[in-house]
Inverse folding.
């Protein structure tokens, strides 16, 4: 009976066991695949999370770099504005110092001219007094003295005028150079820089030529005035001497 039951039910039992084993194996495979997919998805999520974190870190670093660049640009703009202010202050200082120098030189020239005129007047008075007291012989010596005094005074006046013109030229050139430096630092376009430099160079050349012409004209005028004064003094001395001799 057992053998009969075994022959009848054993294949069915084996088949059921086989089916059960296959089912268990299939369930295991499905569970492992699901677990592997979940693990892969978690890995992917972790990877995506890592990429997101790296992206977020890169975005945060880029935002920090942008903030640092904005702060550096603001600091550079503030430094450029401070440099502009310092250059303007320098221009004002140069102009004020140049004006003071020109005023001092003009005052010196006026003082030299006044001293020369006073010396001429004093010498003429002394010559007249000596001629009236002594005679003609001392007149020649005093005339030479008068001529020397007038020539020295005129030379001093010419020298002072030339110094004044040189100071004016130097002040103009310094101011122009400072302005050129400011413009070149402020202007970014190269063509504009070249145009500004060319214009400034032309202006400086014209100013120097005008100052040189003015200096030459002043020297000529002073020389003419000196010659006229010397001639007048000599004529006055000679006439005074002849009048004194005629009276005596």
């Amino acid at each position: 009976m057992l053998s009969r039951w075994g022959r009848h039910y054993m294949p069915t039992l084996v088949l059921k066991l086989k089916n059960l084993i296959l089912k268990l194996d299939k369930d295991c495979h499905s569970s492992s695949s699901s677990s592997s997919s979940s693990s892969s998805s978690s890995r992917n999520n972790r990877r995506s999370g890592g990429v997101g974190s790296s992206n977020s870190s890169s975005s945060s670093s880029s935002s920090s770099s942008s903030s640092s660049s904005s702060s550096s640009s603001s600091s550079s703009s503030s430094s450029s504005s401070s440099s502009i202010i310092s250059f303007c202050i320098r221009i004002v200082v140069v102009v004020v110092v140049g004006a003071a120098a020109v005023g001092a030189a003009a005052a010196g020239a006026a003082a030299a001219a006044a001293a020369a005129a006073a010396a001429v007047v004093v010498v003429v008075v002394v010559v007249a007094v000596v001629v009236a007291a002594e005679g003609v012989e001392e007149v020649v010596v005093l005339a030479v003295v008068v001529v020397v005094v007038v020539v020295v005074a005129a030379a001093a006046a010419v020298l002072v005028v030339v110094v004044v013109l040189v100071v004016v030229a130097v002040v103009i050139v310094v101011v122009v150079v400072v302005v050129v430096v400011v413009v070149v630092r402020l202007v970014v376009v190269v063509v504009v820089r070249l145009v500004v430099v060319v214009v400034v160079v032309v202006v400086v050349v014209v100013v120097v030529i005008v100052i040189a012409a003015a200096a030459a004209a002043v020297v000529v005028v002073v020389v003419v005035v000196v010659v006229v004064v010397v001639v007048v003094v000599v004529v006055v001395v000679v006439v005074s001497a002849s009048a004194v001799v005629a009276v005596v």
